[in-house]
Write a structure and sequence with these properties.
Keywords: Activator, DNA-binding, Transcription, Transcription regulation. By secondary structure, this protein is α+β, with helices and mostly antiparallel strands. It is built from twelve helices and eleven strands. β6 and β7 form a beta hairpin.
């Protein structure tokens, strides 16, 4: 993300989900219990777009409207009565719009699934760690929402209005019921669910880090994406770069911020997010520690030399 002169860049702040979600009165209902998050949205309008970083695996149901998702060089469009399952620790761009001819109604559900929940699911579905999985990754594909699934969604509607009176374990059982029902009806989805916890193949550390250098991915996220444990990721990273990953990533992000300060007119806050930092105050403090200048002073110093 670099450029010359007064080039402007698209720098919308990336939302981390599910923990960055906020409830909009009248449009969204969010259910949070013991780290499990369910979002229901029903709105009328022409739609919107944005970027989000998936902190948990995402199971997306669209009951009305269209929800287009892009990540890397992949893109899928989830339409009325369709669903898709996406793995965590990646940045996705989305465009969502209402249904033509139905007052532009957009109605979708998001289930954010933690690794702990998938571990419990693997246990009750008799698919423990010793069971052989497919040799290649299960493909991400659009699947239909059956009448059975539609009725399931209706069955958890009361939980949103009664969440203070419902036991956390009951909600978890309801989510396990959903996963088990999905997997029982679709063998490929069963494999995809199991592979979410542990990617099938190791990926190149260099490719994973370069792809995510300006995203809010944690070291645990990068380790997951590379198919390694956190300790193995740190060890293999050091063998390649002769530097701890946190230190190397911070340096690369500072270098990106320097580039943007020198060659764009973006506000410092936008540069903070574009370089992979999440907090402008933290970014300014880290930047000054590294360069001896605040971001604004660094830009002024560069301009004075031109």
């Amino acid at each position: 993300m670099s450029g010359g002169g007064s080039q402007q860049l698209k720098n919308d702040k990336m939302v981390k989900v599910p923990y960055g979600l906020t409830s909009e009165v009248g449009t969204q209902r969010i259910l949070r219990l013991k780290g499990v998050t369910v979002l229901e949205t029903c709105i009328s309008g022409l739609g919107s777009q944005g970027r989000m970083f998936l902190e948990d695996h995402l199971l997306l149901f669209v009951l009305s409207g269209n929800y287009r998702v892009r990540w890397g060089n992949r893109q899928v469009t989830v339409r009325k009565n369709e669903m898709v399952l996406l793995k965590r620790a990646m940045v996705v761009e989305y465009e969502k719009s209402g249904e033509d001819g139905e007052e532009h109604l957009l109605n979708y559900w998001m289930f954010f699934l933690s690794d702990d929940l998938l571990k419990e699911f693997a246990a009750i579905s008799n698919s423990g760690p010793g069971e052989q999985r497919e040799a290649s990754p299960a493909p991400i594909s659009i699947r239909p929402v059956s009448e059975r699934l539609s009725r399931y969604l209706e069955s958890i509607e009361p939980y949103f209005s009664e969440d203070r009176d419902i036991d956390d374990h009951l909600v978890k059982f309801k989510l396990l019921e959903l996963l088990y029902g999905l997997a029982a009806a679709d063998g490929h989805l069963m494999n995809q669910l199991l592979q979410l916890r542990h990617p099938v193949r190791m990926a190149s550390i260099a490719d994973i880090v370069e792809t995510n250098i300006t995203t809010p991915a944690t070291l645990a996220d990068l380790a997951y994406l590379s198919g390694r444990s956190l300790s193995s990721f740190k060890r293999d990273f050091y063998a390649i770069y002769q530097m701890p990953p946190y230190q190397w990533i911070r340096k690369r992000r500072i270098d990106k911020a320097k580039e943007l300060l020198a060659h764009t007119v973006l506000p410092v806050t936008d540069i903070c997010y574009s370089a992979g930092f999440e907090n402008p105050a933290h970014f300014s403090r880290i930047f000054k520690q590294d360069t001896g200048y605040s971001p604004t002073s660094f830009r002024q110093m560069i301009q004075s030399k031109e």
